[in-house]
Write a structure and sequence with these properties.
Length: 104
């Protein structure tokens, strides 16, 4: 059974807008074998939900996505990671969160 494409749009939009409760609800209610597809779905530029939330500075959303196993090493079509976006935006709490995860 495949993931409904509307869920991809929903999680990408919710991540970019900072709706961490909605992201949590979607991931919590999704079958465990569907979560990787939702966490790694991409927009037209190749950005994942984690990249979109990091780029917008939505720390609570970043935390939810990481809790469910989002990849910090995924890259967009231009080679940017979530860490790049957080650094470019000056979002220190998100950068710190990534460093803690990477160094653990």
């Amino acid at each position: 059974m495949s993931v409904d494409i509307r869920l991809y749009s929903l999680i990408l939009r919710a991540s970019s807008e900072g709706y961490h409760d909605l992201v949590d609800r979607v991931l919590s209610r999704s079958a465990a074998d569907h979560r990787p597809a939702l966490l790694e779905c991409r927009d037209d530029s190749g950005a994942t939900p984690l990249m979109k939330s990091a780029r917008a500075g939505h720390h609570p959303t970043v935390q939810v996505l990481l809790r469910f196993g989002a990849s910090v090493s995924a890259t967009s079509q231009l080679g940017n990671t979530s860490m790049h976006w957080a650094c470019l935006g000056g979002f220190k709490p998100i950068v710190k969160c990534f460093f803690v995860l990477i160094n653990s």
